[in-house]
Specification:
- By secondary structure, the chain is α/β, with parallel strands linked by helices.
- It has one domain.
- It is built from ten helices and 16 strands.
- The strands form four sheets. Strands 1-2-3-4-5-6-7-16-13 form a nine-stranded mixed β-sheet.
- Strand 6, helix 7 and strand 7 form a beta-alpha-beta unit.
């Protein structure tokens, strides 16, 4: 076991425990199933496993996953989140997979909905024991989120993409966060969030990739905490726009941002359940997805793994911001996945 694990600040563990679901199969990484499964299995056995949540995959690829994952199957079983495109065509595959599951089980599914009718169709096809995350547009999200909550589903927001126009404004994202928190609605965020804080970053991992102003995972997590604590919209917007890592520190008492403190108790109250099977709670932070790797000898900034995702968290960064140890060994061509974040408040 890594000697670095005990050095992770309690506040970082409280904020980031089980916060990352693995989505290496999706753009811009688009890993092979073999590489994605092997990397996730490696992380489950590593010092960073305390941050790891579900394995995310398209529902249409469950049979492929089953064949590849068999050599890695063990206890506890892997929790899977299946991204569903065609309810009628793909739900029978989830039912069949779970009926004969060995070593993994689909305990969550993700769908898109832009109307109430879309959500009602999802409700008509719900599966027992499977959490449902419904991605809604960020323009005026509260009415749809109310319907999502009424059905006992969870929310989902898209926070980035492989083009700059896929990144929402801070105010639009804040409105989604506020609506979800106000409804007591668990939710997740998907795309972008490759870095701790907001900044101008490559949108893909090609050498000539365009840049965009992306949100960081700490921006989203801490802004959600701020809303829950009743901090004013101007403060929430400031958290979502924050770019300076020296303003954030993890310590024994909690997380501090520009003199404002979110204490350990508040962070612990936001911690997700330890079980791979999702349990709905009004106060839990979960999130989703990493797949980070680096070509041997490739020191380009865009190829570095993001702190707190694949690195060993430690308090050695500036003002205590988590920084990584040397990157993981390469398990695929250079590239990284979109990151989802799930916050069950």
């Amino acid at each position: 076991m890594s000697v670095l694990a005990p050095a992770v600040p309690d506040s970082a563990r409280a904020l980031l425990r089980a916060v990352v679901d693995y989505a290496g199969l999706f753009p811009p990484t688009s890993a092979t199933m073999g590489d994605a499964v092997a990397h996730y299995a490696s992380e489950r056995a590593g010092a960073d496993q305390w941050m790891l949540g579900r394995f995310v995959l398209p529902a249409a690829r469950l049979a492929e996953f089953k064949a590849v994952q068999a050599p890695f199957a063990g206890e506890p079983a892997w929790g899977l989140s299946a991204v569903v495109g065609d309810l009628g065509a793909e739900l029978p595959g989830i039912v069949a997979f779970n009926a004969h599951a060995r070593g993994a089980i689909v305990d969550a599914m993700e769908v898109k909905a832009s109307t109430v009718a879309d959500i009602e169709r999802v409700a008509a096809h719900r599966l027992p024991g499977v959490d449902v995350y419904v991605e809604v547009p960020l323009a005026g999200p509260e009415p749809l989120l109310r319907v999502v909550a009424a059905h006992g589903f969870f929310g989902k927001a898209r926070t980035g993409g492989v083009t700059a126009d896929g990144i929402p404004s801070a105010r639009a994202l804040a409105e989604f966060l506020a609506a979800a928190v106000g409804l007591g609605l668990p939710f997740k965020c998907t795309a972008g969030l490759h870095h701790p804080l907001r900044g101008d970053y490559p949108l893909t991992y090609a050498s000539d990739a365009p840049h965009g102003t992306m949100f960081g995972y700490l921006n989203v997590l801490l802004a959600t905490a701020a809303i829950r604590r009743g901090w004013p919209p101007a403060v929430v917007d400031g958290l979502l726009e924050e770019r300076d890592e020296t303003t954030v520190s993890f310590g024994a008492a909690g997380v501090t941002w520009r003199g404002k403190v979110i204490g350990i108790e508040a962070l612990e109250a936001a911690r997700p359940r330890a079980s791979a099977v999702s349990v709905r709670a009004r106060s839990a932070i979960r999130s989703t997805s990493w797949h980070r790797s680096r070509a041997d000898g490739d020191d380009r900034p865009h190829a570095r793994p993001a702190p707190a995702l694949v690195g060993r968290l430690r308090p050695g960064g500036r003002r205590g911001l988590p920084h990584p140890e040397p990157p993981l060994r390469r398990v695929q061509p250079p590239g990284r996945s979109i990151a989802h974040w799930r916050s069950d408040w």
